[in-house]
Amino acid sequence: MQEEYQHYLIQQVTHFIDDRTFLRYSTRPDGIDHSILTDSYSKGVRTVELGIQDFNEQVLAASERGYTRQEAIDACLLVKESGMKLSVQLMPGLPGYSKETLTQTIADTLTVRPEFIRIYPTIVIQGTPLERMYRSDQYQPLSLDDAIQDAALMAETFEKGGITVIKIGLTGIDDSHVVAGPFHQAFGELVRAELYMKRIIQTYEPGKVLEISKKDVSLLLGNKKEYLTRMKKIIKQNNLMVIISDILEKGEFRYVSDTNCELW
Known about the structure:
about 260 residues; alpha/beta; TIM Barrel; five-stranded parallel sheet
């Protein structure tokens, strides 16, 4: 984006800014420098979001992103040094992607420590170079299950590292434009359900009643009860004793001895 146009856009919202309101913009890692960040800060910008997509050199080259791993890291650090908050977009499943490249991307993300993360699994959109690669068998997208597993690992690791995951999955896309890939309108919900299920399994107490928040019922019963079915199979229970709580917050659960429960 040309600097003049950036100034024009900022000027259109300047009169809305007060002591409690700040601006955020998204750009490529090679779209900023010290001068741009200094100027942005003076105009009320307090968060810069970088579309890194992946930190692995092989993935960046295969995806023709136009910058290197080190340039991506340097851009992140430059935002941090400017006094603004850093947000990063990551896109698992790009050309060249593997479990090994995912591990490196997670490690590099934890190193630069953004305040916020968005995770968008790669999907093939009609009319893009990626579609041409897909049609010519040069690219194979992730399956929906693999994308959920990888996004869940990323979200869990980042949140444990103190990084806020503010978005998982693309929404608002016309299904007719999607050629291939792990597209699901409720992708973020599926990832949260995966993480929720794993937490329950890891702490399961046989013979106790599982009390969950009413806000989380859809996580276990949604998607045709897939996660509830998988969970019961793993913990080897045909029926799960459950209480739905009006008190527990979203994401909270506990085990109690109350026998006044539902059988799922």
